[in-house]
Amino acid sequence: MSTETQTSYDPDQTTTMTMREAIRQALREELDRDEDVFLMGEDVGHFGGVLDVTDGLYDEFGDTRVRDTPISEAGFMGAGVGAAATGSRPVVEIMFSDFLGVSMEQVMNQMAKMRYMFGGKTEMPITVRTTEGGGMGAASQHSGTVHTWFAHFPGLLAVTPGTPAAAKGLLKTAIRSDDPVFFFENKMTYEQQGEVPTDEEFTIPLGEANVEREGEDVTVVATQRLVGESLSAADELDGDVSLEVIDLRSLYPLDTDTLVESLNKTGRMVVADESPLSYGVHSEVVARVMENAFFSIDAPIERVGVPDTHIPFSPALEGEVLPDAADVRRAVQRIT
Amino acid sequence: MVTIDIETEDGRREALRRMLTIRAFDSTASDYFADGEIPGFVHLYIGEEAVGTGACAALEDQDYITSTHRGHGHCIAKGLDPKYMMAELFGKRDGYCNGKGGSMHIADVDAGMLGANGIVGAGPPLATGAALTAQQKGEDRIALAFFGDGAVAQGQVHEAINLAATWDLPAVFLVENNQFGEGTPVDLQHNVQALSETAEAYDIPGFTIDGMDITAVYEAVGQARERAASGDGPTFIEAETYRYRGHFEGDPQPYRDDDDVARWRERDPIETFKDRLVDRGELTEEEYEALREEAESTIEEAVDYARNAEDPAPAEAYDDMFAVPVPEIEQFADRMRADGGTR
Ligand SMILES: Cc1ncc(C[n+]2csc(CCOP(=O)(O)OP(=O)(O)O)c2C)c(N)n1
């Protein structure tokens, strides 16, 4: 998908930074660039965000641009929707994605439907940031991966950065977009390092996957933390099986072309995403390639994800349900 | 033009004309719904005209309102054109929402009307958001949320008021207590005596007014607007009113009897306002009849317009999802429609 936000930037100017820093930098640059942008959420201001993502922005931009809200997800999500419909560009943070349920009326019936129901007579330039995923021993109510709900629901766009560069570029595009974009950060990726373009015009169009590593034998389509895990699996299998690793990046819209192109080359595919396995991202990827490249498929497509459980507390249990590089490797081995 | 100065003779006449237009619109909608020409659900505002009209008269053109599933009156009060409203009820392309919204979703964001709403209690957070935009940008505009007595039980309504109160947003929360939430009387839904007691919890002004009296509504909302616009935050107003019709058209109404309706009709908001103007020598009965006929012919013209308007083309069902269209929608739609062939 092409968006108006596609601009040229200098790809040679980069700095190594963490995912957390990349997200913060995107927020800072967009707050700086456009006065209509403001952040709101629980503890995003004074406190700097429970996982430190918005740290420092309150001091820099003040309490009207970085707003601490009462603990009322339905209320401030709705206020974000009303603000977006009237000319603001709110970036709403939901502290943990598990709390999105509390705000869902405003998401499902207002944010997602207003433009359509009104015959196109309003825009909805809202971005919702939230953090997903297990790995911190935070138990079931603070570890969920729920991006599938939003990718499934008509009227919403959903992105899942797998690298710091993807996080910065996609978040800037999301904030500049006139459509509602859900931006899903995996909490175990905040410390992940990567090269990130420093150009303030660096944006990544929604709906473009990225080939992170080229390979010949098996395509691994991964999201968020599992991009890094799949790259590790590729290293481990190097010389034995050659993996092509794709960061899916955008769940909706979905870059069918890149997936098909890769599958046409390798004939085999593994889909790795931390959401529950039934009816999810995995299934959609499989359906798309089946519809568009059926005769290139040489082996059953494998899924790596959470086996339809919630995320347990005990490290002994959590490690069992969370997918990692070993799961990707085993999936590859099953089809080669 | 939305604003009406009820303190002038012309303004009072305009207010009366607007109430008559609402009543004519909804009576006509009732007929065409009964005939089967209007599909879906239709919830009428008859009996409550003084609330919407009085409130919108006290607003400025640039102000926002949010509405409810019973929104026709709010639309007309806010100055929307009955022609395009009726076209929307008939599902036509020229309707306010190109036929995608219908009775429950009429909106005109440019006119400050942020939509009727099919979800009870969803409007107040949106009004809080519109008020937030006004505050952020330093604009001289406020947002008023209309909502029902039933909606006062919804959690998100309280979250919205708390947020607006905490941030001193330029908002007004106006409950239309028409005595019922669907078929359940208000006293079975709330423990408080007056819904305006709600305001105490947020430390904002709250009062209950006579919603059958347009002047009372105008004055209360006027004061609330002033407070909001000067940065002192929201006000909570409960307007006591009554809906003459069922909850929706076709409602058998086992929950009340005709006497109740008759008793409230004695204080009909249009009749009492007219009588007052006649008493003051501002209006004759003949002039009133002429206003009424004018309102009715406005609505007849709206129906003619709606009937003759075009239906949307089926493929328009795929328009307007996003500002920047996604390829998925087109591809899925094309694929669904493609005929099979033998391979
Ligand atoms: C969240 C939600 N729950 C239930 C309904 C069904 N419903 C539609 S209108 C209504 C009653 C609303 O009563 P009130 O807020 O007093 O408004 P009124 O109809 O009296 O104008 C109900 C229960 C709904 N539309 N939305």
Helix content of chain B: 40-55%
Rg of chain A, alpha carbons:
19 Å
Q: H/E order of the elements of chain A?
A: EHEHEHEHHEHEHEEEEHEEHEHEHH
Q: What hetero molecules are in the model?
A: thiamine diphosphate
Instruction: Indicate the CATH architecture of the largest domain in chain B.
Output: 3-Layer(aba) Sandwich
- Biggest sheet strand order of chain A reads 3-2-4-5-7-6-12
> What fraction strand of chain A?
15-25%
The count of DSSP E runs of length 2 or more, i.e. the number of strands of chain B, is 7
The quaternary state of the protein chains shown equals heterodimer
Shape of chain A: globular
- Estimate the mean pLDDT confidence of chain B: 96
The number of helical elements of chain A comes to 12
The most extensive interface between chains reads: A-B, 53 and 54 residues
Structural class by helix and strand composition of chain A: alpha/beta
* N→C terminal distance of chain B: 63 Å
Give the uncertain stretches of chain B in residue-range form: none
Domain Dehydrogenase E1 component (chain B): 18-314
Protein name (chain B): Thiamine pyrophosphate-dependent dehydrogenase E1 component subunit alpha
GO molecular function (chain B): oxidoreductase activity
GO biological process, one term (chain B): sulfur compound biosynthetic process
Question: Topology of this protein?
Answer:
The complex is a heterodimer of chains A (336) and B (343).
Chain A: E1 14-18, H1 19-33, E2 37-41, H2 57-61, E3 66-68, H3 73-85, E4 89-94, H4 104-111, H5 114-117, E5 127-132, H6 147-152, E6 157-159, H7 164-176, E7 181-186, E8 193-197, E9 210-213, E10 218-222, H8 225-237, E11 243-247, E12 250-252, H9 256-266, E13 269-276, H10 281-293, E14 302-306, H11 315-321, H12 325-334
Parallel strand pairs in A: 2-3, 2-4, 4-5, 5-7, 6-7, 10-11, 10-13, 13-14
Antiparallel strand pairs in A: 1-8, 6-12, 9-11
Chain B: H1 9-34, H2 49-57, E1 64-66, H3 72-77, H4 82-89, H5 123-137, E2 143-148, H6 155-166, E3 171-177, E4 180-181, E5 184-185, E6 206-210, H7 214-229, E7 235-240, H8 258-265, H9 269-279, H10 285-308, H11 327-337
